[in-house]
Sequence to fold (362 residues):
Amino acid sequence: MIEKSTMRKYLVIGIILLFVGMYIIPGTALKNKKSQPTSRGNWLYVGGSGPGNYSRIQDAINDTSDGDTVFVFSGIYYEHVIINKSINLIGENQESTIIDGNNTGNVIKIFANQVVLSGFTIQNSGNSMYNDIGLYIHSDNNTVTSCIVRNNYDGVVLEYAHRNQITDNYIHHNNRDGILIGGYTSWNRITKNTISYNDGSGIYLGGNFIHFDRYETITDNVVTKNSFGIDATGTTNSIITRNKIANNSYIGIWLGDTVNCVISWNLINDHGEWGILSEFSSNNTFQYNTLMNAGYGLTYYTNHGVPDTWYQNYWGRGRILPKLIFGNRMFNEDDDDHAFCLPWVMVDWRPAQEPYDITGMS
Fold:
């Protein structure tokens, strides 16, 4: 009996020491410039009270190697940050860890692949058309999550960028577009963001290059109270699905020279002009969308090439008969001297009888 009692005492003491160690070790690490190497590299710290911590984010990044993590404590950091290594840049709190461009230039630029950026407010870029962006991404396979991007010229811009994930961010009050996916991009995923109060488009696909924006996925975003909701120009083979696109000043979804895209399961309502406006586009599929309330009309188009397909959309009220969709069709578009348009009608043969119940999008 004595031996069993003694063993139980040692077991209890061991468990207590284990829990104490779990709480002491992380707290100690946060005060030092670098922790011991782990499978994901070293940790460097910016701000806070540690005697070895950095005071500038860029200085910490300059001292990293691929796979390291820079953790930034809450505070305002007036910097222009360039990430040119495959690191994790993590803020303590997205509302109180602020990188401020002081109204000049780009706030953050990512040139390395496989960067994780999380937990920051990114604000106050310069205010001109070129080189004034909150977050500029010019690389591949990066993840941006849990950030606030506000008061920039453009919020987030991707160019020459592939397979990036932009998810669960709040992007608002930028002077032009919330997210701009520019030229020579593909396979990016824009998901679960709230994008509001931007003076241009909430999301703009296409940039300055025609037909080099491909295979993008825009899903589960809330895009409200911008001038335009989602503007897809020169975009091909992309998916726009399960978004709430509402209360934008002019147009909900605007397609221009857009080919082979699928627009489905979106809630598109309460726009100043058009719910969907499709210009000089072809072979797109519109299905299972809920369209309600637009100043000029729920949709209008100028089609060329292979006609678009409309299938089982809800058109503001239940309908027994097929829904006629009026617009124009262009002929001889490759011959500038002889191109012409004629009034045209497309048909949604089986319109939905009631709005779709899209979870989280009501």
Remarks:
- The helical segments are 2-29, 57-62.
- Residues 1-30 form one domain.
